[in-house]
Amino acid sequence: MRELQAMATTVAGLLVERNDTISVTESSAGGLLSAALLAVPGASRYFLGGGVIYTHQARMALLGLGETLPGRMRASTEAYAHLCASTMREKLATTWCIAETGASGPTGNRYGDDAGHSCVAVVGPVEASTTIETRSGDREANMWAFTRAALEILERCLERTG
């Protein structure tokens, strides 16, 4: 956790410096992204909340998104991560939201993505998204890799607004 906390400390510093807030929605990272951001002392200055959106039931209850998504969108895509980030950002009225969705393993997901697939989106004054492919079925290693990648893209977005 120390590596993630060190990365999150940099992100936290940028958020606090700007008086910005953040929310999180994640699935295959399993809460590690929120845990990393919350492990930094003073997290209440920037972290407003979020959720692990792991099922359709959670998506409906926490994001208000129904069983059917807009257009031909499906989960575990950059477009879906962007939708989740936009929705949670609006619900919690944060400056930023970061969303992660994918398949941690050991097998792929029901949408046809292999284990080790994750999509991350950041929505705020700057927006970005990316897809991570570890090509591994190691569930825990993937969760850590997805979280590292999410913190990296968030840091890049924050630096672009500085």
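(ticket continues) Second input and output from the same batch:
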Amino acid sequence: MVAPAARRAGALIEWDDVRGFGWIEESDGSRRVFVHVTAYPRDAPRPMVGDELTFVLGTGADGRRQAREVEVVRSERAVQQEAEASESQAARRRGKVSVLPFILVPLFVVLFLLVIARWNVPLWAIVLYPAMSVATFFLYLLDKRAALAGTWRVRETTLLVAGLLGGWPGGAIAQQVLRHKNRKWEFQAFFWCLSVLNVAIFILLVWYRDPISTFLSGS
């Protein structure tokens, strides 16, 4: 009984798709072996540089070493397709970037600057929005990192309250830049309702600032 030929392992390092041949480098890097497309099974995937193979070492008509009975152990094309599919799934999990926050936030900034130019806005109100926006952005960043690491998360209530207190512009940008909380519709509904409430309160406080100041002073 004839013992089966020993199989060798290697990777396809060169491939001419038009001419149907290439070169395999053995796993130990000791030599390169010629391979022709006819050495592949009929149902094998299309050869691609990077494929990991096993083969039987034979000799071609010209006397040089040539791979026979090639089997694909790991297809580079399949690996790329899996990576693309994984990236696509990850993108779907993260959700699509919405352009709406990148429109609403600049509009609010313009409104904010017009209010400052038109009325005598107190310094604390001027500092409040930038400071809270930066703080809220970092809260989202911390929560995103905690979600990826599987550690303690920032409460959604904390994120919503931070938005209500003036940090909603930073929160809106963070949701899109970090792809965080932008797919949870319940959270989005609460977030934008509180953002509208914050803007309404801001306008009311500025509009009725003098009557409120008079009332509080008891005059």
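Agent notes: Residues 95-217 form one domain. The beta strands are 7-16, 21-26, 32-36, 52-59, 65-74. Closing as not reproducible unless the customer responds.
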